[in-house]
DNA sequence: CTGGTTATTTGACAAATGTCAAAGGTTTTC
DNA sequence: GAAAACCTTTGACATTTGTCAAATAACCAG
């Protein structure tokens, strides 16, 4: 499982056998039951998480409302950007919506390896630039589309989400209310 | 000027004298007159731009509408994330709203140096992770705030923008119409 | 300074979305 | 299999924001 994960990681950017072995020491796996947290509120995000199997939701509270920031499906990464980079307690929570197997890439270990190994530094650059592109696309998608178009966009890009997640969560991901989303659906 | 820029860059992450000299070879400066483009439509974004003096607006067209993605003030960075990382022609344009002096950090040169020098790779990691945090904060700010709160947020974080930019551009940055913004202002 | 241009505000109304409440559906649990 | 808990839909109405058009205000060039 860890080998497959390493394959996936190093697909972003080539990594020597030696670096791969070093990296392996900072990777560990865990099971998270449905409803439990991969990252708890106010906890430091000290790893990059990879959902080997299962499904997770990233969310936070704003003015008492539960806001979904992102969904992470199987074979996808997630982490709290601000907590990870700023070393602050996380406002973001990551909850397993199904029983999940999670692979952790330890931040401290990974960071220190990037300081001594060029190939791993390249890997970090590639990973973060990919995140940057995702983040960018999300902003553009939400900023200038109607709720309906956002929904259709989601439907196209990540249709599996709609099978697994409650309406309320999808609505908060899209930045609209549950009722509005229900009405949008009714029209399609 | 370039030295001050290097100081600023290397403040993100320490860089050796030797690396600094190497980096310098990939930095060049230019003047851009008001109304001219730092990055043209469909051009490849082959540098990270730094506004030494002046002011710039990043925007693109969506369904015929002019959408402002970001403003870059003095001593700030800007570039087209997707064009830079994906090597695609840029949909984003960067226009100087005032006569500006721009410092270019050449992508090709910088990228290749990050492949051979650990300290410069670290610099890249730090720069891109900072961009990631900015992008993230922007999404959160826009996604779950009313138009008014977005405006107040901008007022607090980048008040200088409001002095330099037309209402229409600020409105498109906030994702609202000019009329709505005008009414929000009237109430304050 | 003055006419022309551009930017901003205002008004009237339409459309989209939110809020609150209630009614149906589903799923879970015992 | 029935009650409880939870999720989704629907209705009525309020609020926010958009659209179009016109009126002001600010800016610029000659």
UniProtKB/TrEMBL annotation, chains A, B:
Entries under Gene3D superfamilies matching the protein: Jelly Rolls
What is the designated name of this protein?
Answer: CRP-like cAMP-binding protein
Q: Where is the signal peptide?
A: none
Q: State the organism of origin.
A: Leeuwenhoekiella polynyae
Give the Cyclic nucleotide-binding domain ranges: 11-131
The domain of life is: Bacteria
Q: Which CDD domains match?
A: CAP_ED
Q: One Pfam family this chain carries?
A: cNMP_binding
